[in-house]
Amino acid sequence: MAGLIDHEKAFISLFNQTARYHHRHKVFEDFVSCSVIALENRLCFSEKREAKYLRIIGGYEKPDVVRMAQLLAHVVNGLQDGFCDFLGNVFMQLELGDKYRGQFFTPWDVARMMAQLQLGDVKAMFDEKPFITLSEPACGAGCMVLAFADALNQAGYASHRYLWVSATDIDPLAAGMAYIQLSLCGVAGEVVIGNALCDERRRVLLTPGHYLGNWSLRLHSLRKKAA
Q: Which positions fall inside the DNA methylase adenine-specific domain (predicted)?
């Protein structure tokens, strides 16, 4: 529609103007790290995280620090327009993927189709259980998780109430992208930096939705019933 901002294009344009004195991949990694810290510290402030944030932005000129905040605003607004893999899309359009590490992100339409096939009859599923859990062992930027949550929302079941997610990726950058997007979309769960194949959990990031939905208690109650 005319007059609407294409936040992906705006993000890419602004990113290409940001900190040209650094390698583009470093700028993107620093943007993700600072955004993760900003989201975590709004919920539970940590001096250690704040010190890391200040160390990162200390390597940038003031106009570029402002641009970093503007980049996050485009992510926020882009996801408010509708669930999508915003960061995965811009990452690939910026040609930051490393083909040798298999960093290619699933197209949104494919992810949505897969989510609908997995969910099947949503109403019948919730006739039997109060909520469901989803494990994603190679989450990338969180596309499949977001598609799953979106499919639930479209079926009339608010994902923040009916879904808890454990999303893992071995790449800290991908996990950071997933944490940002799941947090901004209100998805409850954890994002784990580690290797799901050997149950390695180097770092665990709990989304705001996990805390706001009292999911620790809800999961504990479910485990007690199953015991």
A: 99-197
The pTM (predicted TM-score) of the whole model is: 0.93
* pLDDT tens digits, 52-68: 999 999 999 999 999 99
CB-based contacts of 60: which residues, under 8 Å, 6+ apart? 19, 22, 30, 68
The DSSP-derived string for 133-160 is EEEETT-TTSHHHHHHHHHHHHTT--HH
Our CA dihedral for 202, 183, 55, 104, rounded to 10 degrees, sits at 70
Which residues 6+ apart lie within 8 Å of 100 measured at CB? none
